[in-house]
Amino acid sequence: MPGLIRGVARTAVVAGTATAVSNRVSRRQANRWAVQEEPVAAAPPPPPPPPPAPDPMAQLTQLGQLHAQGILTDEEFAAQKAKILG
């Protein structure tokens, strides 16, 4: 009977040690994988789309109103009009 108890005790010690070692290895692997899986720097967001091109008719209308109000001289009006029309 003492040999049986000694054999069971030895088996329990070996099994306990194996379980502890296995758990430690699993934790270390999980930590390594967690470090490797961390995202690198996220890509910067795409730049906003450029604003739509101004409507030449709306610009000419506004330019005409400024000229009619006397804010723009004839020369300034002609220069800006030529600039808008290309």
Write a structural description.
The chain has 86 residues and is an all-alpha fold. Helices cover 71% and strands 0% of the residues. It has 3 helices and no strands. The longest helix has 36 residues, at 2-37. The termini are far apart.
Mind sketching the topology for me?
Elements: H1 2-37, H2 56-68, H3 74-85
Helix pairs in contact: 2-3
Outline:
The chain is mainly α and 86 residues long. Helices cover 71% and strands 0% of the residues. It has 3 helices and no strands.
Low-confidence stretches: none
Instruction: Count every beta strand, where a strand is a DSSP E run of 2 or more residues.
Output: 0
- Overall pLDDT level: 84
Helix content: over 70%
Distance between the termini: 109 Å
Structural class: mainly alpha
Please outline the major beta sheet. none
Q: Tell me the quaternary state.
A: single chain
Q: How much strand content do the residues show? A: under 5%
Computed over alpha carbons, the radius of gyration is: 41 Å
Shape: rod-shaped
Order of helices and strands: HHH
User: Helix count?
Assistant: 3
